[in-house]
Write a structure and sequence with these properties.
single chain; alpha/beta; six-stranded antiparallel beta sheet; 10 helices; globular
């Protein structure tokens, strides 16, 4: 065989292979590899960061305990509580807590806040089961607690798992009592009991979202009648002994049942984390760590805003719809301008701010891939997700381009996240900041099993989100 014919045959073989392998028809998105590829030198750093993240999740089970843990992190990093506007000066590292449930942490830049700022806003509440004001009742010899679920949940997922009771009780006399029972290995836990498969024929006719009705999400909290012969009396006696309260004190309590399962590594490779509350204490933790690691005063003021009640519409005075954030901008602007301060100074500061509204998003599920539109959905392990909702909910194109450049210039893997049309959706607190004329872009990382009792994240996504937040502040 002569050389030209041999070369032609080789070319045809390679051409045929490429066609069948779909090499030449791939888009740039199809050719992207997982972030784990090429990250071998960073494995130790990635896993170490996620160990600290897991420790945080194990302690920060609601917005109350999250706020407390965040204060510990930032105080260790040298941040001080803001008590007077005289503290607001270039290089100052400050924080302010709103009613124990929301917090703003900031580092004052060398430029006035009216000329610009960088803000990361996230929420640190998560779906849970809240205790009603008059909770105790008896059924079939057991003491149970009446509850009402908080946020969007699949109710059946909360049955047959260990639950802890957490929150606070405030007494008429002004005394405050913290409650956390079920987290320690030797603590008792609580349980919502399911029906046995031997006798559950009627409930089997229910739709899967209503396997449990809302009024059936009541944990067992006692079963011993004690000397009184009454199970409720005995349960309340034990509660009073532990916390020094009367039954009427539940009226002024904020108590919640949350999963009593510690964060765990997932897979033979330990590349994922399973934990309750990653939506959205994941973004909260990454943002706080990024701000805490600022070594010098930034050029423009850097802020983290962690808010409450996102899962129920960002309502109340600790939710993102409150004036807490805009008031903080006004305080900083006033401290920097003195007698020249007026309302327009605050409006200008808000107008010139760049905001990352950070929240977790749904990732492609390997068991239910058809629920996602794969060419636009996010995948675990593929980096930071720029959210594109459509329908006028997106950041403007120039802001998105700026974020893309920031990611690419720092070699941070990224992708996009869009829901399948007419099959689902979601949103963030960013819309409330957009109403203040702030420039907002939605960013997150994907999770599996969102809003469940045990959500899954990719450790490399968490680490890359933290890396992005760090460069965003510089």
């Amino acid at each position: 065989m002569n050389a030209p014919i041999a070369k032609l045959r080789i070319f045809l073989l390679v051409f045929t292979f490429c066609i069948h392998a779909n090499i030449w028809s791939q888009s740039v998105w199809q050719s992207k590899r997982t972030s784990w590829s090429g990250s071998e030198n960073q494995i130790g750093e990635i896993f170490a960061f996620n160990e600290n993240y897991k420790a945080f999740l194990g302690l920060a089970t609601t917005e109350l305990s999250s706020t407390s843990e965040v204060v510990k992190i930032v105080e260790t990093a040298g941040f001080k509580e803001l008590k007077d506007n005289s503290q607001i000066k270039v290089g100052a590292k400050l924080y302010i807590v709103n009613r124990g449930r929301a917090i703003i942490v900031f580092a004052v830049g060398s430029k006035p806040i009216a000329d610009g700022s960088r803000l990361i806003a996230a929420h640190h509440d998560s779906p849970r089961i809240d205790v009603k004001a008059r909770p105790l009742y008896e059924s079939a010899g057991f003491t149970l607690m009446q509850t009402i679920y908080y946020g969007g949940i699949k109710k059946y997922q909360w049955a047959n798992i260990p639950l802890m009771l957490t929150g606070r009780i405030d007494l008429k006399e002004g005394k405050h009592i913290d409650v956390s029972l079920g987290a320690k290995p030797d603590d008792p836990v609580f349980l919502i009991a399911d029906a046995a498969p031997h006798s559950d024929l009627p409930p089997r006719e229910r739709k899967y979202t209503n396997v449990f009705d809302g009024e059936e999400l009541d944990p067992i909290v006692g079963s011993m009648p004690g000397a009184s012969g009454n199970v409720i009396t005995e349960t309340m006696r034990r509660i009073a002994e532990m916390y020094g309260i009367a039954e009427e004190d539940f009226v002024s309590a904020e108590l919640s049942f949350v999963p009593a399962m510690p964060p765990r590594d997932v897979g033979f490779d330990r590349a994922m984390t399973a934990a309750y509350g990653q939506d959205d204490r994941l973004c909260s933790y990454a943002a706080i760590r990024a701000l805490a690691e600022l070594k010098t005063a930034p050029e423009i003021t850097a802020l983290v805003y962690l808010t409450d009640n996102e899962e129920t519409g960002s309502i109340n005075n600790t939710g993102a719809q409150s004036s807490f954030l805009s008031n903080m901008y006004a305080r900083i602007a006033e401290a920097q301008t003195g007698s020249a301060f007026n309302e327009n100074t605050t409006r200008r500061a808000l107008r010139n701010s760049l905001v990352v509204s950070a929240d977790a998003n749904d990732g492609i599920n390997p068991l239910f891939p058809g629920l996602s539109e794969p060419t636009n959905a996010a995948r675990l392990g593929y980096g930071v997700a720029i959210k594109r909702y459509g329908r006028s909910f997106d950041a403007n194109s120039e802001t998105t381009a700026f974020i893309r450049k920031l990611l690419d210039d720092n070699a941070i893997p990224w992708q996009t996240a869009s829901y399948k049309v007419e099959s689902g959706g979601g949103g963030t607190i960013g819309g409330f900041m957009s109403k203040e004329n702030m420039e907002v872009v939605d960013i997150g990382v994907p999770l599996l099993s969102m809003h469940s009792t045990y959500e899954l994240s990719s450790k490399i996504d968490v680490w890359n989100l933290f890396r992005f937040f760090k460069v965003f502040f510089h």
